[in-house]
Write a structure and sequence with these properties.
The complex is a heterodimer of chains A (439) and B (174). By secondary structure, chain A is of the alpha/beta class. Chain A contains 18 helices and nine strands. In chain A, 44% of the residues are buried. In chain B, 68% of the residues lie in helices and 0% in strands. The radius of gyration of chain B is 19 Å and the shape is globular.
Chain lengths: 439, 174
């Protein structure tokens, strides 16, 4: 599934050629649209020639419709596409500054390239100015770094903000674009050709009618088709994504989880998928209870996507089925460093058993670790919840009589966890997502 | 001897936009990233600075990220996009007879004024582009197509500011 992993090409001539070809199309399209002429660009701000609006916004909606169509057909994995992270206020202030530079200088960094390529002296001077500008930024940003990294909302898109499906959002953006194009054409008649408002023709140009109807048609089809659910998307991902499922590489032995919890270089995050009742009866120390459905969207998903690469997360549930289903969906959404605890809570309790006076195993079914019946809710208060900690650490001892331990605390002197052998499964992925040209 | 033939007219903006959108989509589809120019300018500038003052580059956090120590700031995807864009602009310009050494400006200002303002505008643009983490292409165009909220906020601010300043700068262009 696209996009293609180009990291293996890094440093080779093929890498340069791929990106060079992309740039070639970029430069050619800008030049063909007239972006090499500073007067055409500046005229945008005097409403005389709305070419900038038309070309830019057409490009945005065409690409947006194609992207939504490709993800809808399962051809493109959007989770691996670079989406500019939202740093709201630095972006807004940067935009306000750039607006001034645009009007004074008559170019933007992209268009000045085609102006330079077609030997426009003002384009070359602007390019030199832009190099000075980026240099000044690098020299000064250190003095207000807190602002530069402020209001970081991460990967935050319009469909998430509006709570609308991608296809609907794209359709609405197309509608807004077409309305703006039409308004732009009216403005051009008045400010560009000096026609009085009363004589302005309301009829859109033939090019706008053709482009507009094509865009509307395709975006309606894209909207009607919709986007695959995370589970459907996982099935489309192909053999490489399925390998950890088939080879059981995603299921991690409880003893490995315990070992990793002791590793100071790592942060281990345990996500418990069971309901609140079962979670209160017993859960692994440090785990958080999450709803599987909530993990795959909104704030919870962003939290998972934004974890530093030194964090490894484990899903734990009753057995493995719930964890596996959630793992597949999260994998399809681009969450890495994620595993499922082998055998679930039941397997954990089999290896790290609670005292007999607290819980007892139910009748075992062939091949499946038995479920447990707890006498009362223990949360994470049992030594079995924290096998990595020494048992002498002052756990509450539920089975002692109050007379022998008046404060309810004492030593589980008789517990010593066996050291279990396991195959190491966890491999930290540190590779970051692709970066865009301007990122 | 015949006079040089006049340049061909520009493409219809909707057609040019569709072409640009197709290139942008292809970029996302193949490489997973969009288009851009300002990050590449930053890399090139840092590379130049690294020749002149490598110790300074190593000490300045923003530059060190790109060219500190033995990092190679030139081998960066955006630099290839930039070189490709120069080539694409040149080829399209040649084909349409628009490659000509000249200076374009508003009718009522001198060449010197145009040069000063192009330099000043470029510097302001370059500065703002890095603060916004992208220029018109990298933020507004690429981020807009993937529906990033920040990119749309950025695009609105650049146009709002442009229209607000345009009246004061009208002598430059009209």
């Amino acid at each position: 599934m696209a996009p293609y992993d180009l990291s293996s090409l890094s440093g080779t001539i093929a890498n340069a050629l791929v990106f060079g070809a992309v740039g070639f199309g970029f430069g050619a399209a800008l030049e063909l649209g007239g972006f090499g002429d500073t007067r055409k660009l500046a005229a945008q701000f005097y409403l005389k020639d709305m070419t900038v609006l038309k070309v830019m916004f057409t490009a945005i909606v065409v690409a947006a419709v194609l992207l939504a169509g490709a993800t809808g057909l399962g051809l493109l994995d959007m989770s691996r596409v670079w989406v500019n992270p939202t740093y709201l206020w630095p972006g807004v202030v940067g935009g306000l500054i750039m607006g001034v530079g645009f009007v004074l200088g008559g170019f933007c960094p992209g268009t000045t390239l085609v102006a330079t390529a077609t030997l426009k002296i003002d384009g070359m001077v602007f390019l030199l100015g832009a190099l000075i500008g980026v240099w000044l930024f690098g020299e000064t940003v250190g003095s207000y770094e807190n602002f530069f990294i402020s209001s970081n909302m991460g990967r935050f898109t319009l469909p998430e903000w509006f709570g609308l499906p991608v296809g609907v959002t794209v359709f609405l953006v197309v509608l807004i674009a077409l309305a703006l194009f039409w308004g732009g054409e009216l403005a051009e008649q008045v400010f560009g050709h000096g026609r009085p408002w009363a004589e302005v023709s309301l009829r859109p140009s033939r090019a706008l009618l053709a482009t507009g109807s094509a865009l509307l048609l395709v975006s309606v089809v894209v909207m009607a088709r919709g986007q695959p659910t995370p589970a459907q998307k996982f099935d489309l991902l192909g053999a490489e994504a399925r390998r950890p499922v088939e080879g059981r590489g995603l299921f991690v032995h409880p003893a490995e989880v315990v070992a990793l919890k002791q590793d100071l270089n790592l942060k281990v995050e345990l996500l418990d998928l069971r309901d609140e009742h079962d979670f209160n009866l017993f859960h692994v120390g440090g785990s958080r209870r999450v709803e599987a459905a909530a993990l795959t969207r909104g704030a919870r998903l962003n939290e998972l996507l934004a974890r530093p690469p030194s964090t490894v997360s484990f899903l734990i549930g009753h057995g493995e089925a719930g964890g596996l289903a959630a793992w597949k969906e999260l994998r399809a959404l681009g969450v890495g460093n994620l595993y499922v605890v082998e055998g679930g809570v039941e397997r954990w309790l089999e290896l790290y058993a609670p005292p007999a006076c607290v819980a007892e195993p139910l009748a075992a079914v062939e091949g499946i670790p038995p479920a447990w019946r707890f006498a009362f809710a223990t949360g994470a208060s049992l030594p079995a919840a924290w096998p990595e900690l020494p048992v002498s650490r002052g756990f509450r001892v539920p089975c002692q009589s109050p007379a022998s331990a008046p404060d309810g605390h004492g030593e589980h002197a008789d517990i010593r966890w066996p050291s279990y052998a396991f195959d190491k499964k966890v491999k930290l992925q540190t590779r970051t997502a692709v970066k865009g040209g301007c990122g | 001897m015949s006079l040089p033939r006049p340049p061909r007219p520009y493409l219809n903006p909707y057609l040019a936009g569709t072409l640009l959108g197709a290139v942008l989509f292809a970029s996302f589809y193949v490489t997973g990233g969009g288009l851009g120019a300002s990050a590449a300018l930053s890399h090139i500038q840092t590379g130049l600075l690294d020749w002149i003052a490598p110790a300074h580059v190593d000490r300045t956090a923003y530059f060190a990220e790109m060219a500190g120590g033995n990092r190679n700031t030139w081998d960066y995807s955006g630099v290839y996009i930039l070189l490709g864009a120069l080539a694409g602009g040149l080829v399209s310009g040649l084909f349409n007879r628009r490659v000509k050494l000249e200076l374009r400006k508003g009718p009522n200002i001198t060449t010197a004024t145009r040069v000063v303002f192009a330099l000043l505008g470029g510097a302001i643009m370059g500065y703002g582009a890095r603060l916004a983490r992208g220029c018109t292409s990298g933020q507004a165009l690429s981020g807009g197509a993937v529906l990033s909220v920040g990119s749309w906020a950025f695009a609105l601010s650049i146009f709002a500011s442009g229209y607000a300043v345009a009246w004061f700068a009208r002598r430059l262009w009209n």
